[in-house]
Specification:
Structural class: alpha/beta
Shape: elongated
CATH architecture of the largest domain: 3-Layer(aba) Sandwich
CATH class of the largest domain: Alpha Beta
CATH topology of the largest domain: Rossmann fold
Order of helices and strands: EHEEEEHEEHEHEE
Strand content: 25-35%
């Protein structure tokens, strides 16, 4: 099949993983390309939209237009669903592969898997687990698409808002334990945790240094 992967942000965390997926799909004899501009999308069999920040509207060019979203759709539509659910205290998070539609996050569902965390993982580890499940869903669909039935979304929908830098703000009146899930999901470089005190702003960076073994 002719498969195109579209990531309209060339600086996205997902790009190195996407390049690996391109190589793997080519080994399976699929004509596969990675694109960073939605104007370059051509007619083909499968278009995979990966962490796209813009809405892609030319859905008639490909037979399938796949999107992966980390929620139990139609609940949890919108922005950064994985992060929001971790902040809610969840460690088992659904990941849904569905068909892109004119209305955002509303298309029919093909497959679903789960990210299973233990509660200690920091952002890089979380993103890695996210990709492993994403890749599994994509490979499964590519290999079994002729037998997979699309199921329309059912249930009550909900929406997560876009996260901004202010969402990385710590409350100095709360404990580290109370805010550990927030610390797990911040980026030390792009959107670091911070707090404000006595007219100044302070950044805190988090790094896992070792695993402690029980004696």
């Amino acid at each position: 099949m002719k498969i195109q992967l579209l990531c309209d942000n060339p600086k996205s965390w997902i790009v190195p993983y996407a390049k690996d997926l391109v190589a793997e799909l080519r080994k399976l004899s699929h004509d596969t390309t990675l694109l960073f501009d939605n104007k370059l999308v051509e007619r083909g069999d499968v278009l995979i939209l990966l962490s796209c920040e813009k809405i892609f509207k030319e859905l008639n060019l490909n037979t399938y237009n796949l999107v992966v979203h980390e929620s139990n759709l139609p609940a949890g539509k919108g922005w950064s669903p994985l992060t929001w659910q971790i902040l809610e205290g969840k460690n088992e998070i659904p990941v849904t592969l569905f068909e892109a539609a004119e209305k955002v996050d509303s298309g029919a569902i093909y497959l679903q898997e789960f990210i299973k965390l233990e509660g200690h993982e920091l952002l890089q580890e979380i993103k890695h687990q996210q990709w492993l499940v994403t890749k599994k869903l994509i490979i499964t669909f590519i290999s079994k698409h002729s037998t997979i039935k699309a199921i329309e979304q059912k249930g009550e929908e909900s929406f997560y808002p876009r996260r901004t830098n202010v969402d990385s703000k710590l409350d100095i009146n709360k404990t580290l334990l109370d805010q550990f899930n927030l610390l797990r999901t911040v980026s030390n470089d792009s959107y670091p945790a911070y707090f404000e005190h006595l007219g100044h702003r302070y950044e805190i960076k988090i790094k896992k240094v070792e695993e402690l073994k029980n004696n």
